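Reopening this one. Same input as before:
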Amino acid sequence: MFTGVLPAIVTPFKNGAVDEEGLRNLIEFLIENGVHGIVPCGTTGESATLSHEEHDRVVETAVKQVDGRVPVVAGTGSNNTAEAIRLTAHAKKVGADGVLMISPYYNKPTQEGLYQHYKKVAEAVDIPIVVYNIPGRTAVNIEPSTFARLAEIDNIVGVKEASGSMKQITEIIRLCGDKLTVVSGEDFLTYPLMSVGGKGVICVVANIVPREMADLCNLLLAGDFEKGRELYYRLLPLCHAMFYETNPAPIKAALEMMGKISSGEVRLPLAPMSDANRDKLRADLKAYGLV
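Same output, byte for byte:
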């Protein structure tokens, strides 16, 4: 269910509020260009600065706009297990096909604490769960042996791996086999990860190049690594450009430059891109033919 490219979509803002029309229009753009799923309220969606009411509304809006055309995997993670259960239950209630759950951040739980957190949510809400491992943001790495334990829980079905370590990625795939679908959480690792058995990417850059990222995943899933490699290296400069500054400031600026959202506004403590980095980003978009 959760293979190919699933854009982690931005949450457009206008004058401090969620721009629901902009959100719906972005979803249409992505689906029209062949993406395999939609992920609202992830890191790229600025979930950390959405109110609970806004979070619920963004998920519900996404589900309604997608209308069953592709899976919706809603971000529902938290460093508070009870809150994660509430967010996950809401996603299920409004019709999400699955949830993406970042590992508890700031608390620095042990591996046993991580296991018990996910087990508790999985037992409380019967919905497919994709575990999101990004130790650069959470301060704790989910180790491959812990993924092997989580893979035994029926509704834990996948992992978004953003540790940046191919050693870790390959060990997860070796230990878990077909029990967990492994997708990249780093755009620039899409090709390497899929070449060793990964099934796709939950992706930032797909917000601006959905067709190309869908084509890349389709080629790699079909085993055409030669054509896939050519496309991958064409996309790679854009993947790097999305991280000139903290995500999602660059991807929102790019979408604004392309006219896909009305404003590249981000919420504090994130700040707009510097002028120098905006100039670099615009040059990259121009080189690719996007502006």
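So the earlier flakiness isn't reproducible anymore. For the record, The CA atoms of residues 24 and 61 lie 7 Å apart.
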